Amino acid sequence: MNRQVHSENERPKPQDKSATAPTFSAPSGKPKKPYFPTARRRRHDLRREVLDAILYVVKTGCQWRMLPGEFAPWRAAHYYFDQWREEGRLQCLLSAVRRTVRREAGREGEPSALIIDCQSVQTSRSGGIASFDAYKHVKGRKRHVVTDTHGLPWNVVVHAAGDHESQWALHALKPIESWTDRVETVFADSAYQGLETNIESELDWSLRVVEPEGEKGGFSVDPKRSGPKSGPSAGSAAGAG
43-63 pLDDT, tens per residue? Predict the structure, then answer.
């Protein structure tokens, strides 16, 4: 591979600075202001050198210090990542992308139904939160995922594998309440049984507990339902928005 990595004080040859930050349409169809400030000239292009660096880390899982040379130096990229996350800019960008994808598929921009499920995964010895999932015989963490019926992620929460799904369900669902007001129903498997009253009182949503189709395990996208497949049946959510 010919990729180069920055030293702390080096930076690649500047690329074309004429590109502006991405913009998206508001629900009314009128253009919104850029999600990233473009009013003044900056040392690093926020779209090509910073945002692409963040997406590269997310896609590859590499260390920040190992960012290839065509991006901004890792300290700059990490600085903007922290800043944009705290300001909510990244969440706004994700919301805009979700709305765009759903509308291109002929759906409403925001969903009326969600699917919640989780998967236990084994972790390395590097440390961090971990415990033993006695049901699935896995020592590690659980990835708690909430998607719409189009398969688009709305929230992800990571916690110790030994914690039961019911302990973290509201933590995964609660933030979504401030991002959309269309949700009416949440589909889940039997691990979430007993949370119907809590979800209704906290979020004013109804929880529908359904069983998975067949005995196949694992975590994948169901082409019928396009949600995380390991819990609710495909047919149960297929007609939901």
Answer: 888 888 999 999 999 999 999
